[in-house]
Design brief:
The protein has about 200 residues and is α/β, with parallel strands linked by helices. The protein is built from 6 helices and 6 strands. The longest helix is centred in the first third of the chain and has 16 residues. The structure holds inosine 5'-triphosphate (ITT).
């Protein structure tokens, strides 16, 4: 069984591979296509809208079932930023290191109790001729003052899950995949995945 994930993000691909192996699903990403896939413009204002745009673009182009993930981090003291702009928070290039440094900079002087944040993942499933559906998962926590750890990707080094003294980048992949926003979105697709 194979499922196409409409992403070019290697961190996401790794986590989907790990999480889908128990369903016997082999993950193929846009990086595995023979032809280069144009970047899809994410014109939505919510994670769900953007996940649907990405899933339907690839499902329609190749006439296959597709899952897409749109995700990011919402920081309460920054009025929910970077939110849907998480991938390009520090500039046009997608640069994880610059992005997390910008969050730390914007939070300088903000005391610990006010550094709350959450990761959000919208996972959309689009199939030719059928209605698209989307499920949203979250992971609550707070932002550190320094990056810690080198596992995971993106904003993981500055994110402490609620109740944890380690950042998500100090979690093993198994630990992260048991509590992440991506996990919480995917469990809602379990019935569909079992038959995919
Ligand atoms: P695709 O659109 O090709 O899937 P992308 O990286 O552009 O790749 P998004 O538009 O969904 O994906 O942006 C997600 C952003 O949120 C990006 O900066 C990630 O680093 C960050 N992010 C998402 N999930 C994360 C996670 O589990 N841990 C850390 N950062 C995460």
């Amino acid at each position: 069984n194979q499922l196409v994930i409409a992403t070019k993000n290697k961190g996401k691909v790794r986590e989907f591979r790990d999480m889908f192996s128990k369903y016997g699903i082999e993950v193929k990403s846009l990086l595995d296509f023979d032809q280069p896939i144009q970047d899809i413009e994410e014109t939505g204002t919510t994670f769900s809208e953007n996940a649907i745009i990405k899933a339907e673009a690839i499902a329609n182009e190749f006439n296959i079932p597709v899952l897409a993930d749109d995700s990011g981090i919402e920081v309460d003291a920054l009025n929910g930023e970077p939110g849907v702009y998480s991938a390009r928070y520090a500039g046009l290039e997608k640069d994880d290191q610059k992005n997390l440094e910008k969050v730390l900079k914007n939070l300088e002087g903000v005391p610990k109790p006010e550094r709350t944040a959450r990761f959000v993942c919208a996972a959309a499933v689009a199939r030719p001729g059928e209605e698209t559906f989307v499920r949203v998962g979250t992971c609550e926590g707070s932002i550190t003052t320094e990056p810690q750890g080198d596992h995971g990707f993106g904003y993981d080094p500055i994110f402490l899950p609620t109740g944890s003294e380690r950042t998500l980048a100090e979690y093993t992949s198994e630990e992260k995949n048991a509590i992440s926003h991506r996990h919480h979105a995917i469990v809602q697709l379990e019935d569909w995945l079992k038959n995919a």
